[in-house]
Amino acid sequence: MDGCWVRPWVGSLCHYGDESQSLIEQYLSHYPHYQEPNQTELPQVELQLRSISRRIHHNPYLIETRIARAELLIKLRFPELAVSDAHKALLLTCRATQDTWPGRSCYDLYILKRETSLLLGQALFLARCFVECLDLLLGISQQNYVLYGPKKEDYDTLTKSTRRALRLERQHHWQDNSFREAEKEYQDELLSKGEIKLVPYPWIPDLLFRRTMSTIEDAKSELQRLSNGRVTIEETQLRERLQHGGQLTLDQDAYGLFAMADIAAGSKLFVDRTVICANSGSSRCPACCADLTGNRSTFWASEELFCDAACAGRLNAVCQLGALYQWSGYYQRTHSRLSQPPKDEDQALFFRVLAAVHKHTRDHSSGHPLESWPINRLTAGYHSGATRAWSYTDDVCAPLEVLEKLGGDIFEDSLSEGWVLETISNRIATNARGLESNEDQIAAINPLYSFFNHSCRPNVAALDDEMNGTSSVRIVARKDIARGSELFISYLSNEELRTSYENRKQLLSAWTGGDCQCMRCAHRRERPDSNAACVQEEPECDDSNKAIANDSEEEEEAVMTNSEDSDDESDETSMEF
Ligand SMILES: C[S@@+](CC[C@H](N)C(=O)[O-])C[C@H]1O[C@@H](n2cnc3c(N)ncnc32)[C@H](O)[C@@H]1O
């Protein structure tokens, strides 16, 4: 965070213009030091942030500087990062109280703990984590230290505002029908998550924001080798449209896959191996995602089952993660509700990627975590307006606990910095492949496949390839493809592709944050009237794959038979090599 401020500043606070939003704004107006800086004040605040970050870098265990930075991050409207600093400050006070640090009186620590807890509550309130904020405040009110003293009024105001915001949120969900038919459990889940906007943090240096040329060259040669010189990586043809639609910052890279030769419908182009995966069941190798049920010989390494020693070696750090499922440690003693195994495959995948990055940075001490494999291959994927469900438990406490378990120093290591963890999480969300197998939900990283862009009229299909024992993804041409054309998969299922433009736009918003920039959707935007009955008028897309939920083997046949649809003319222009 102590680098130059390289891109325009945008906070990650979500603005809805709804009632709970005005409640948030009203709350903030009570605190002049949280007043959002205007453009003239911004350079000064930026300087302050850099100077505090440098002090944290020199002494990462100082509670006061963490508090100061959390306050500044609230002012700059990055509540998720303020939560991260306030959480670390609270951990330090708790640990200091237990160890009775030399030179610190108990009274000092008592004051700091009170201040830090309030700050954490405020940041959670801003990130719309109302349930977690109330939990925290209730937990604190059971301890005597908040019942008296100058901050009591602040605690009361925050508690009142949070209760009101939660009530409004509940009402809102009933009104917009998201609660109508939902099970109680789902309602609680919806209410328990906050939300943040995906933004490129302004201090991320270009070197970490864009992928380096050598990373792209490595991916390119791997792809050319796997596809026998038929596929390569170049800047995507969507780039201009993405920039025009405000979905790409000027300095962001955006690549795609291109045909280097004419390709006949039905040809297999390449197979991309899964490198890290996580699944809701327990029958798959964490490295290559091979199905381990049946008679295959397997290999145990530190409580994790791999298909063989090579896979265990490749994902060495993950071996230590077996222990994660036992979740002992600091939080088990203090906050029992945080002592859970990973909730789902997405969270488990995040932990495994963290383990791989942790190992990489430990082994190559010179590099930054965002430069390490496999994160360095994945696009940052920031889209104007895209938001992500976010919680204190899943996005701050759990990953930090994982890193401590792996032997990291969560105060000192750059991997534990809030903005670094958020950036990694964002990259996984944009690039992970999701699939279903025998009712198991699987989330996987396939570093070549993740270069594919989406089209609502895709020209290639991505099929789950279990043939050689691993869960790789096999790329097959759905139609004749001319040399130089960009290759597009579909991030939607066959059924979803057949739905209306509006529905597709909504389904795709998690990736695009706005308009889908494929030709089919661009055409629909240009001629909205001619396409009123767009479901009928849009070309048939019976045989597409689902990028994130993968195709089954049965669909493969459909891909081949439908690949010569008359309306399947290539949807993007081709380029020359
Ligand atoms: C898995 S990545 C695709 C590869 C990426 N272009 C790269 O440079 O690595 C997914 C991201 O690409 C962009 N993208 C892909 N297809 C798109 C489309 N049809 N419309 C808008 N954005 C798209 C979005 O930013 C999305 O989050």
From TrEMBL:
Domain of life: Eukaryota
Residues in SET domain copies: 229-492
CC per GO annotation: nucleus
Region listing for Disordered, in residue ranges: 529-577
Compositionally biased tracts (Acidic residues): 551-577
Family matches, as Pfam families: SET (PF00856)
Cross-referenced InterPro entries: H3K4_H4K5_MeTrfase (IPR050869), SET_dom (IPR001214), SET_dom_sf (IPR046341)
Protein name: SET domain-containing protein
Species name: Exophiala viscosa
